[in-house]
Amino acid sequence: MPTPAAKNSEAIPTTLASPGALRFWLAVCLIGITTGLAAAALTRLLELVQHIAWRGSGTNILAAARGASASRHIAVLLAAAILTGLGQVVLKHLSSGNGIDTTAAIWFRAGRMPAWRTLGSAVLSIFAVALGASMGREGAPKQVGAVFANVFSDTGKLSDEQRRLLVACGAGAGMGAAYGVPLGGALFALEVMRGKLALRFVLPALLASLIATGISWVALPNAPTYIIPSFSLSASVLVWAVVAAPIFAFASILYVRLVRWADRGKPQGWQRFIAPGVVLGLLGAVSVQYPELLGNGKDLSQLLFTNQVGLRLLLVLLLLKPLATFLCMRSGVPGGLFTPSLTFGALLGAAAGHAWSAMWPGVPLGFFALLGAGAVLSATTQGPISAVVLMAELTGRDRSFILPLILIAALSALISRSIEPRSIYDARLSDEQIASRQKMREQESDQIGVPQSLSVGGKPRS
Fold this sequence. Notes:
GO terms for molecular function: chloride channel activity. With 462 residues, the protein is mainly alpha-helical. The protein contains 19 helices and two strands.
């Protein structure tokens, strides 16, 4: 049986004087530095590939695709299909074990992941998104951050509990560095990846995300991802937030279940070559008419937040954009789901805003899109706090929309969580794993906001 001293050395250090604190905090700093450098490099790689492939902007795939010929649309997407098929075969041979999702690794393997296979998948996803696949780019820096966390946990001979936290911190640091959202990245690491906002977890997550974001700003612009106007608060938008929250909750439940369907049906064997070719070839053909389908959806969301999408196009994209994401995922194209989910929420919010404005006009349609994006992020990630903070950091705004955003994010997450226990980041988990994770959460002795040293079996020490 481990001695009390051994148990203390395996726990998360809450002070610099705690046993093993130097090794732990040095690992946190190194994770932040390496993840920040990697996120910057991956972002620049995406921009370079996108610029070369589309012969246009490396930061705005929509503008580049609008200026490209129909033949280029199809050729670039078929190139993405060939690369995806070959990449999947190579990845299968990079590791003797199977690939593992970051969330599953944190909960069931103490954060351990096959390094080369994970890194290869990250790089492949960057090429796929740059070439137009309808997936998110945050998957790559998240995976790289998790790999670095594993490396430094091994080097520092850290405990499983420490490794589990640091892998979540590495993933959150990757998110923070990729999008320039240090606080949102830290909260994402805890609320979404680790699934617990315990006090002793906060400082490592904050430090890793802050360092990674600061490092990335050396190479990437320190600017909001979305430029939006200042929206005015009104009774109309507050009532809409309450009325519309169930709509976003049920839409998010459907979204998560379709993500699960897509993940469980990924191609095997020779189908790894056929499925990407069919899906991405079809996407290339349809994108000639609807270039908004290409990429992660960032440029489309910007248009929605500033009310630059007509109603007819909006309704078409509300169906086609998430469908493109699900089919890309189903065909085996690697990538993230953060921005695609945000864009789906913006599309649904703008559509619901059109209907509401017919009854109670006066609210800009971009405001509805923004709130819809936050609501779907909250419900699909089951992280309302991180969703609110991420939307504030992504837009560089704070007070102009915070009250209705908190309201709709909280209600949407509450309703969806009551029906669907999974988020988009743990859709791969089986029903047995979901039940096992819930038991693990209940068995963790610490309470939110209570230092471990003050809690034994869930009760304060006398």
